[in-house]
Design a protein that fits this description.
The complex is a heterodimer of chains A (307) and B (103). Chain A is an all-alpha fold. Chain A has a domain at 184-307. Chain A is 64% helix and 0% strand. Chain A has helices at residues 11-25, 27-49, 61-68, 98-133, 138-145, 152-155, 161-195, 221-245, 252-272, 278-283, 288-301. In chain A, α8 (221-245) runs antiparallel to α9. Chain B is mainly alpha-helical and 103 residues long. Chain B has one domain (4-99). Chain B is built from five helices and no strands. The longest helix of chain B has 26 residues, at 24-49. Chain B is elongated and about 45 Å long. The mean pLDDT of chain B is 80. Classes of the chains: A mainly alpha (307), B mainly alpha (103). Chains A and B meet through α2, α3, α4, α8 and α11 of A and α1, α2, α3, α4 and α5 of B.
């Protein structure tokens, strides 16, 4: 039997082959990407001419936020409940013409306008309130944030010195507990990062190793797209390697290399992302699907290491 | 994985541009590139509408990444925000179509 380990399968070579195969396969794709890049450069130049240097080399911060908003339910996020559309959104036909695209966009725009009008009204009410009573005092904002909004009678209540001391002690205790909880969460996260495997599965998806049943982590929505892109890229590479080497020998060594590379990149993104527990993820806009996926995975793999 | 509407918009762009023959990766590359360009355009259009003081204020708010706050602020300052978005997307896709002879 041939020793598969001794077969020459340098990963660099496979990567180069993959790249050249891609270049041959899609000249149209290269032309499209050139057009996209040129357009991007032109927009950046326009921004630069207007003195908006913040856009250079990056995607538009506000624009990308607006584009990622669920246009039929604007107003979610930041603690607000997402409003469900009153009527189901009709399915788009399979073939979409330019006219249909503008019709779709117009429908979205109309819905968004309604939602924005609501937000504007809220903002105006707040402005009127501020004009009448002055800016919201800091102590009022704090009690509001803590969900301990008190009636005006309670706010004016006179407290004795021992009561104040007691309150202060209770507040300090609460803060200590919060800090300890945060420290524990970070420890868990570090443990998770060290022991977990995050890799593309070859099915356009990627694996989150979850660790404990009640504690799991993800990243906030800002980094998901980046992770998604990496997974797609490596899925393709792995698929291509399996296709190519399937006939001649084990693709294991190459795919392992790709998986390790993807793992490194994904890990780096997760590290810079916001760490969240499953509970927090469920509250984060747009992450419901991931939460469900993670939960399913937990059910399947509870107590077992993920390959 | 992506928000449904975000995904819809991307699929819609892919269909409009007839990118169906591309692999998922290629399609995403083109569509995400165009959406990045559109997002830059939206930024420019928004910044054009704001006074210097408002721009500074917006940048400060956007650093906190509180979507609700950003949206509230924008909607209080710009009345035709949806049209700005629509125009930026249409212009970006239209320009791309012309550049690649898809018209």
């Amino acid at each position: 039997m041939r020793n598969l380990e001794s077969l020459p399968e340098p990963e660099e070579e496979a990567l180069e082959e993959f790249k050249s195969e891609k270049a041959e396969k899609a000249p149209e794709f290269s032309a499209d990407m050139r057009a996209v890049d040129e357009q991007g450069e032109a927009v950046e130049k326009e921004a630069e001419a207007k003195g908006y240097k913040v856009l250079k080399g990056k995607k538009g911060l506000i624009g990308s936020l607006l584009l990622s908003l669920p246009l039929f339910a604007v107003g979610c996020g930041g603690g607000q409940e997402a409003e469900k559309p009153s009527a189901p959104v009709p399915e788009r036909p399979a073939a979409t013409t330019g006219d249909q695209t503008s019709a779709d966009l117009s429908a979205r725009v109309k819905k968004m306008e309604e939602e924005l009008a609501k937000l504007r009204k809220e903002s105006e009410t707040e402005k009127k309130r501020q004009t009448a009573f002055g800016p919201t005092p800091w102590w009022y904002q704090r009690t509001e944030r803590a969900g301990q909004r008190q009636s005006s009678g309670q706010r004016q209540e006179h407290r004795t010195a021992p009561e104040r001391r007691q309150n202060r002690q209770a507040e300090e205790e609460r803060r200590r507990e919060e800090r300890a909880k945060e420290r524990n969460m970070m420890k868990e996260f570090e443990k998770y990062i060290r022991s977990s495997t995050i890799a593309p599965t070859g099915e356009g998806d990627f694996v989150f190793d979850i660790g404990k049943k009640d504690v799991c982590f993800g990243v906030n929505a800002d980094y998901l797209q980046e992770m998604f892109d990496i997974c797609k890229e490596y899925d393709e590479k792995i698929e291509s390697a399996i296709r190519k080497r399937g006939k001649f020998g084990s693709p294991g060594k190459i795919t392992e290399g790709f998986r390790a590379e993807a793992d490194r990149k994904l890990r780096a993104i997760i590290e810079k992302g916001e760490k969240m527990t499953l509970e927090q993820i469920s509250k984060e806009e747009g992450l419901e699907e991931i939460r469900q996926k993670m939960e399913k995975r937990q059910e399947k793999t509870a107590g077992e290491p993920i390959e | 994985m992506l928000e449904n509407n975000d995904k819809n918009l991307k699929e819609q762009i892919a269909q409009t541009l007839k990118l169906m023959g591309y692999t998922g990766f290629e399609k995403n590359k083109v569509v995400f590139g165009l959406m990045d360009n559109a997002s830059k355009r939206i930024d420019i259009a928004i910044l054009d509408r704001l006074a210097d003081k408002e721009k500074t204020e917006l940048l400060k708010i956007s650093k906190a990444k509180n979507k609700s706050k950003i949206l509230k602020y924008l909607s209080s300052k710009i009345s035709d925000l949806p049209q700005i978005i629509e125009q930026a997307v249409s212009q970006t896709v239209g320009e791309f179509k012309r550049a690649t002879d898809r018209d």
